[in-house]
Design brief:
The complex is a heterodimer of chains A (304) and B (177). Chain A has 304 residues and is α+β, with helices and mostly antiparallel strands. Chain A is built from ten helices and 14 strands. In chain A, helix 4 runs antiparallel to helix 5. In chain A, 41% of the residues are buried. Helices cover 72% and strands 0% of the residues of chain B. In chain B, helix 1 (9-20) packs across helix 2, helix 2 (24-43) packs across helix 6 (126-137) and helix 7 crosses helix 8. Chain B is built from eight helices and no strands. Chain B has one domain (9-176): Orthogonal Bundle (Rna Polymerase Sigma Factor, Chain: A). The chains are: A alpha+beta (304), B mainly alpha (177). At the A-B interface, helix 1, helix 2, helix 3, strand 5 and strand 10 of A face helix 2, helix 3, helix 4, helix 5 and helix 6 of B.
Chain lengths: 304, 177
């Protein structure tokens, strides 16, 4: 293997690199690990973080239209509204989304900036992969894909779009909404959701759900699997998959399967759920242990 | 350069998993393994005098949020994003509250030559300055930088070599001025 002193210190030392290493080592990190306080409840932290994000966002005011881009090998530049950013093989870029966060753009990706003003930050991802880290009120950051619209409801997620227009969103923290033609899926941390051209988003699922569950759900959503696929979904579902079943509450047997995992609260009836009573749906959602539906319901506004 | 332990992503993922389930010991080991990365990322963006405090902020933020991390193998990239975001917040809050000088003077213990070199790296594009800080200040190898930040090794290599080329040019110009 070729020696490269700058890469790993192997081979013939580069005198300038060596000089800088010696000079700069005095700035190296030396502080020991901090005293770590007991971990607060996640829900309390999430609420506090949301308030802080909302406060700083409101205080930041309007920003000039455009995003800053740092690209490997190309330095820093500015992406104006209407312009396209494309990374080739081996390319990579970090994009500053106004003052609300960052996205990392992987190799072989192509995106276009659609809007970059205040509480409206919007881009389209034609293909490729981005990792978004956003600290802003829900629905501030929106990504159009060929088959669905991904709307940030706060935090950290990965969005991938293939060249056929299909996509997948995977959420590490917070929530993402995936919507198309009146259908909207809410994807919590630890979950993912597929989308297909002409069909829109599928049903969100837990990334650690069983392979049989995920395969059957995909067959049901996109493969024409019908009742047989849904049977497998209902059989394989565990309590942790309850939010997936909640998204499928359109027929009696899903009601029964979800009720067996998470009993509906008093006053929530089969008839009400099957006719799509929103209050009853929300009240059942609140029993799933994923937070109160009210916060994202109340923050809903028409997509930009 | 100092020898560093080989980075094992699977080990780190296991530590992240344990930390996510409440193990303070595991989080402490992650601190040991990743504190140089966080320090370097911050040093590339904020005044030296504030870096240590911000490193603590980043790890405390990570500790609070780690229960929401679902891909344990992505811990490094996730932590790097928190660090970059924290640096961004630092500048935003500084603008909101008061006009700070661009560079707060570092303690007198640092030589003018070292401070000049640090400042020269800070003038480079983001991708280069962060990678060079991790290599030249924190002493990480290219493989370690890639493993910890989640960047592709090829990207790290490009950042190192192009960044170093720019840095040499900059230092030559300053030397001859």
């Amino acid at each position: 293997m070729r020696h490269d002193y700058l890469w790993d210190g192997s081979g013939e030392p580069d005198s300038e690199v060596l000089r800088l290493e010696r000079l700069l080592s005095e700035f190296r990190s030396h502080r020991p690990a901090p005293e770590l306080q007991p971990r607060p409840r996640w829900s309390a932290i999430a609420a506090a973080a949301a308030l802080v994000a909302a406060g700083t966002w409101l205080a930041s005011g309007a920003k000039p239209e455009g995003w800053q881009v740092a690209r490997a090998g190309a330095g820093r530049s500015r992406l104006a509204v209407g312009e396209t950013l494309e990374t080739g093989a081996g390319g990579h870029a970090t994009v500053n989304v106004g003052s609300i966060g960052y996205i990392e753009v992987d190799a072989n990706s192509r995106l276009r900036l659609e809007r970059a003003r205040g509480d409206r930050q919007r881009m389209s991802l034609e293909y490729g992969l981005i990792r978004a880290f956003i600290t802003a009120p829900p629905r501030t950051f929106v990504v159009d894909t060929p088959s669905a619209v991904a709307t940030d409801l706060g935090c950290f997620y990965t969005l991938e779009v293939d060249k056929d227009g299909g996509g997948r969103v995977s959420v590490l923290a917070g929530w993402v909404s995936f919507a198309h033609a009146g259908r909207e899926s809410f994807i919590p941390a630890g979950a993912a959701c597929l989308t297909r051209p002409g069909r829109g988003p599928g049903t969100p699922y837990r990334e650690q759900s069983s392979p049989a569950f995920r395969q059957a759900l995909q067959n049901f959503d996109f493969g024409g699997g019908g009742d047989g696929a849904l049977d497998i979904v209902l059989t394989e579902a565990t309590k942790d998959d309850a939010f997936t079943l909640w998204h499928l509450l359109t027929e009696p047997r899903v009601f029964d399967a979800l009720a067996a995992l998470v009993p509906p609260p008093a006053g929530v009836t089969r008839e009400g759920i099957l006719r799509g009573d929103r209050q009853m749906l929300d009240r059942w959602w609140d029993q799933l242990g994923l937070g109160n539906a009210g916060w994202w319901r109340h923050l809903e506004r028409p997509l930009q | 350069m100092s020898a560093s332990p080989v980075v094992s992503i699977s080990d780190d993922a296991e530590l992240a998993r344990a930390a996510r389930h409440g193990s303070r010991a595991a989080f402490g080991r992650l601190y040991d393994r990743y504190s140089r990365m966080v320090h370097g990322i911050l040093l590339a963006r904020v005044p030296y005098g504030d870096v240590d405090d911000l490193v603590q902020d980043v790890f405390l933020a990570a500790l609070r949020q780690i229960s929401a991390l679902r891909d344990d193998g992505a811990f490094g990239g996730w932590l790097a994003m928190i660090a970059r975001n924290r640096a961004h917040d630092y500048h935003r809050r500084a603008r909101e509250w008061t006009e700070l000088p661009d560079q707060i003077p570092a303690p007198d213990s640092h030589t003018p030559e070292a401070l000049a070199a640090l400042e020269a790296i800070r003038t480079l594009p983001d991708a280069y300055r962060e990678t060079l800080m991790l290599r030249l200040v924190e002493g990480l190898t290219g493989d370690e930088i890639a493993a910890r930040t989640g960047l592709a090794p090829a990207s790290v290599r490009v950042n190192l070599h192009r960044g170093m080329k720019l840095l040499r040019r900059k230092l030559d110009c300053e030397g001859s001025a």
